[in-house]
Amino acid sequence: MTTLFAFLHHAAAFALVAAVTVEFVLVKGDLNAATLRKLALADRIVGISAGVVLLVGLARVFHFEKGAAYYFHSGPFIGKLLLFIVAALASIYPTVQFIRWSKGQAVEPATLRTVRAILHAELAAIVLILLFAAMMARGVGFYG
Q: Closest by alpha carbon to 118, among 88, 144, 143?
């Protein structure tokens, strides 16, 4: 069961990275109706995969692997979790804009710049999350 949950966690994480990357690429192009449909699909995948990453990750922390006490004594784990939460909260703004744009609201240049900046920040957070994961795998930053 532990292997299955590890697989699900990693598969969902890869889907999340791919979907955010697709969003980032799509908002750099022409935001016509076809592109907005693709953005809506990518955004749904972002939401679903992020939910799976979180739920399966929490299941691994609390029911499998080494247990919550072990992970919550890890600076890199806490960093991963905080970055994930910040990125998830930041992703609400692009989602709201994608919905508005798909309903015909004009794409304002300032709003588009903000959406691009948030997506860029999400991708940067993913890189840091990967760094923290590597640190965890090597036992760096554990205390207690």
A: 88
